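Troubleshooting: if your tokenizer reports a length mismatch, compare your output against this known-good record of 329 residues.
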Amino acid sequence: MSETTHTAATAAGDSTAGPAPIAMIGLGRMGGNMARRLARAGIAVEGFDPQAASRDALAGEPSLRLHGSLADAVAALPAPRAIWLMLPAGEITETALAELRGLLSAGDLVVDGGNANYLDSQRRAADMAAAGIAFADCGVSGGVWGLENGYCLMFGADDARVAERVAGYARALAPAPDRGWLHCGPAGAGHFTKMIHNGIEYGMMQAIAEGFALLEGRADMKLDLGAIAELWRHGSVVRSWLLDLTADALREPGAIGSVAPLVPDSGEGRWTVDEAVRQGTPAPVIAMALMSRFDSQGRADTGNRLLALMRKGFGGHAVTAASATKAQP
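Known-good structure output:
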């Protein structure tokens, strides 16, 4: 599906004006910078975050007003209202949506821009539709660099008119008005696309990490990992933003040894593997990348201890006492 042309920017239908004011709910690392980018594009933003520190960090930002509650932020908007959520997946988002159901009216719009399972987004779209409230799910990529470089936005909406409203904000948030955003399909399609995006991200990160681990493994060659990362950034088929970030990290002496070998998983890798199983579509690289993250979290420890005990049982092989295991940095 091609990008949606934004032709109805305001409630009055004046296509020459910019997007209507919007409430940004959730002003953390992503939501806060998205609020800044919208405000700096001249869009009036009503902001709320339950954490006072997150609100304080945005104090003084032009075109951005901060509120002490979700209800106050919504009340400050003209009708029809537009609310963009940037909240963690799960109970926090569910609670906010339940509160919004009681605050909003037919014709209002809710955009869920946080990470969410697309199945939840489909359910939420149906729930909102029953109350006459428009709903769009939007996957957002760009991390902490989005304020400066723009965000990649992939959104789902059942109605073309709803997509047009979202597109007005997407143009301001994206790297450029004509690229970096897409109406991917019906409700759920945005978060589904972002889920697969993050699964690919897991695999790419894992491959880069394993490759540099192999390079480091040949200490006799005295390889300069930082120089190799910088080399590969120019003309190589593996050049990428992830490689750029790797090169930046390796410029710091001792960078690898300064962090614990523990990699959290945000949940989207799990959802991607669940979808692969649901479809019966093989995705071994993504699945193994997820398993490696579980391993880094110590979830392989019990299995590895049993392996050692089995080897001792059938072959008399020696085992290492847990107290003798070298602590990880």
